[in-house]
Amino acid sequence: MNNTPRILNRVLIGILGITLIALGTLLVLLASVPAVGTWWRSWSAGAWSNWQDLFGGTHFPGRQESWLWLVLTVLLLAVMGAMVAWVAQQGKGRASLLVAEEDPGEVPGNVRVGGGVAEQALRAALADRPDLAGATVATYELRGAPALRIRVQPRQGVAPHTLAAEVSALVEALDAVVGKRTPVLIHISSGARSRFGRAERVR
Amino acid sequence: MSHATERRNPGNDVAPADPGNGAAGMEWILKRETRSSRAVAAVIAAVLVIVLCGYALLETAVRAIGQPPWIVDPEAAAERIVALPAGVPPLLLGVLGAVLVMGGLYFFLNAVLPGRRARHLLRDRRAAVVVDDEVIASALARRARLAANVTQEQVMVIVSRSHVIVNVRPTSGVPLHAEAVLAAVQDELREMGPSPVPDVRIIVAPGGVIGA
């Protein structure tokens, strides 16, 4: 439920994949089919001479080097910057506020409840349960509105529906305290701690 | 506090029947939670492109200021690529191409396939609930173990999107009623109510376990 740009991920990964497949197929064909080799040599020689003409026509006045090299440098830097920005988009979307609203009472001002309230209250409520190997709570921003993500790791053999009902009862108690319904995701997950820990026998 | 809430907007705030803006948001959350975000493939792709661009940048910058190249001069590299089938052993070329195709297939399939995660949804009146299939499997295994009266090691449950397969190895000499196990597992699944609902198959191993 974080704000990873999923469609962008798909598109960019797809472009890279198609490019790599095309390059690889070309190399395999070059290695195995002689006719492709002759075609490649004639085609690429033409393309390469075009580039050389371009580089030859773009000298710095009075110097040997072409300024196209500088343009290439800037272009490569731009691509690298875009890639870094893309990586920075992955998994972002954490929020710090659970409620931010104007107070309708007589006193002018805003009411803000930090996400830490819900996170610590729920974590404390879930901490002592013997059937859980771990629980984490985080606040995310979901289309501009805050949402809670509760991730619980039950021990082996715990029935997920009863666990979900109990956690959602806790969430309803939190609703009554905060006075606002935030969207909540309960993720009942398995991890190394629940997999290798002892099984829950007594319930 | 409840006083203030009632005065502001009666029935629209803490009333449990009201989905509010949460309903649409929850559908969206659940759709995202059951599919892979492809963050791993995205990061790998970005790092790959950054490394390639970084190397090209180094050689280009070195060339732009007129210094000797680090590994290979861009022009010499281009000339070798132009003359390609010559100068490189065909086996090496073919293997290189095959590796590139493999890497490309990884990225391409990651982009095109639906990328469903091994998770099911549970109905809940307040929150959106997703459960890893492993958790469902271990709950069903516990129920099947109690119904079959065997130890934990004799039951193995595999949960996929639309199938649950329960493998039971009976204790040698003790009869095992597959129908009872099936009924117990189906009962547990009905209580759980995962969506999509998988159908159950019980496989009783022909050999038994001695001394369990």
Within the largest sheet of chain B, what's the order of strands?
2-1-5
Give the chain pair forming the largest contact, with residue counts. Answer: A-B, 88 and 93 residues
Number of discrete domains of chain B = 3
* Beta-strand proportion of chain B: 5-15%
Overall pLDDT score of chain A: 85
Q: Can you offer a commentary on this structure?
A:
- The complex is a heterodimer of chains A (203) and B (212).
- The longest helix of chain A is centred in the N-terminal third of the chain and has 27 residues, at 6-32.
- In chain A, α1 (6-32) crosses α2 (34-56) and α4 packs across α5.
- Chain A is elongated and about 75 Å long.
- Chain A folds into 2 domains: 6-89, no CATH class; 97-196, 2-Layer Sandwich (GMP Synthetase, Chain A, domain 3), CATH 3.30.300.
- In chain A, the strands form 2 sheets. In chain A, strands 3-4-5 form a 3-stranded mixed β-sheet, with helices on one face. A two-stranded antiparallel sheet of chain A has the order 1-2.
- With 203 residues, chain A is of the alpha+beta class.
- Chain A has helices at 6-32, 34-56, 68-89, 115-127, 160-178, 192-196; strands at residues 97-102, 110-114, 132-142, 145-154, 184-188.
- Chain A contains 6 helices and 5 strands, in the order αααββαββαβα.
- In chain B, α6 (133-148) runs antiparallel to α7 (178-192).
- The model of chain B is unreliable at 1-21 (pLDDT under 50).
- Chain B has 212 residues and is an alpha+beta fold.
- In chain B, the strands form 2 sheets. In chain B, strands 2-1-5 form a 3-stranded antiparallel β-sheet.
- Chain B folds into 3 domains: 2-33, no CATH class; 39-112, no CATH class; 119-204, GMP Synthetase, Chain A, domain 3 (2-Layer Sandwich), CATH 3.30.300.
- Chain B has helices at residues 2-8, 22-33, 39-64, 74-82, 90-112, 133-148, 178-192; strands at 119-122, 128-132, 155-159, 163-168, 194-195, 199-204.
- The chains are: A alpha+beta (203), B alpha+beta (212).
- Chains A and B meet through α1, α2, α3, β4 and α5 of A and α1, α2, α3, α4 and α5 of B.
- β5 (184-188) of chain A pairs parallel with β2 (128-132) of chain B.
